[in-house]
């Protein structure tokens, strides 16, 4: 059993080792999955290096419009002590400043956005507004 666990840890480390070939969005998902599984303690150094890259490089061109990835990146970086401004969510707002009605069709993105609202700091009105009201479904 321990041998299989060590083998799997090696495979995950190889995934991190190939991080330059891995997109930032894939790396965000990998770190999130390891944390959700509760095995992130086995990969602290790899996760730390990945988060530094995620913070410095930003999102891939195509992923910057994916609400789930933007919100997940925001949460992960904030949870690990990186500063990420809440204006990364501005592109998901309409001309009135409200969140786009198109978000109703993205439940995964909405859930990630809701989780991001809990990472708000005092004075960041956009996330505070979301936390209290959220996008309207009607």
TrEMBL record:
The terms under GO molecular function for this entry are: terpene synthase activity
Q: Which domain of life is it from?
A: Eukaryota
All residue ranges annotated as the Terpene synthase N-terminal domain in the record: 1-124
Give the GO terms filed under biological process for this record: terpenoid biosynthetic process
What protein name applies here?
Terpene synthase N-terminal domain-containing protein
